[in-house]
Amino acid sequence: MSKLISNNTKIKLRTVLFITFAWIVLSILIVYYNHLIKLSQQAFEFNDYDFETTLYTNVFAVLIGGVIGGSIITFFLKDKLRKLPLGMVIIINLLSFMVIIGIVSMGAFVFYYWVFIGESYFDGDLWFNITEFVSSYAFALNVICWSIISTITMVILQVNDKYGRGVFFETLLGKYHTPINEDRIFMFLDLKSSTTIAERLGHKRYFKLLNRFFEDVTKGIIERDGEIYQYVGDEVVITWKLKYGIENANCIRCFFDIEDIIKHKAHKYLEKYGVAPTFKAGLHCGEVTTGEVGTFKKDIIFTGDVLNTTSRIESQCNEFDKKLLVSEGLISLIPLDGDFRVEELGNIDLRGKRQPVKIYSVSRKFVDEEKPFIKEA
Questions:
Q1: Contact (CB, 8 A) for 155 and 98
Q2: Residue 1 lies in a domain
Q3: In the chain, how many domains are there?
Q4: What is the helix (H) or strand (E) element at residue 96, kind and residue range?
């Protein structure tokens, strides 16, 4: 049964909720700060000022602004501006938010005086009152303040995308400042015939194909709760915390989800590059040490024998003419159902390993084996 809401959509919705919640908290702090300033200056001579109504109005305005602005960022701007330089992305986002902030501020102004103060405030020309508000110091200060907040929000989201979902905040909280041991699953997914394709397309076109391929691969990874650890040439290293990877056979299904995505877009690859990419992968699990390294360029890395073993398993795909190889240690943990065909290939000696490792080939039932195909020149 297909999901009603994809993981990608769920992540975007959580991002919108996070932005909205964070902005509401900030708006409350700003209102309290302004209230204390007024209190210290004894500036309550205006009859139309009321702390509670100001607070409610700001929370309401930021709720609307957060939902609208957060949705525009996560569901539209992030995807449309993904290939632009970071500076250009920030500028476009900032200009978009300044428009949103201006509109929401005017709406909050009308809401505050019409609902809380009374219609008598607008006796005369409503447009004149709004114009007067827009040209005021308070409006300019509000736009500047929230433009800065929205810019910081965009930078945080960009940094979070760069280092991986959730890694930025885990780093901020110091989770990996001290190395920790954890059980993880790793998949090494490698593009087939990469050298031949690169020679045919040339370095620049091959790079564009590879970038497009990684974009499509990412969609499958997100849907199966995976994390991208790193890109190594034409290879992407994917990882799961053990419980997420074995749940519903996510790490296995991820491979075939990616396969479906690439098959569905094969005609687009053929039209643009004359080749539809195929790939192979190896899967293994084990304990790794996770921690933050580096001084001038910090990064989160995993160390442990499991990574080398996974790489060696993936390298055996060509030897056995199989697309997906999985270690015995991992296959014994995964709840496989009737969707998959599992074939034991026996114990194999892997370079750098003293003990042989038993591996299995995993494929889908009732699905023809995919053959690499390249459009003739």
A1: no
A2: no
A3: 2
A4: helix 86-111
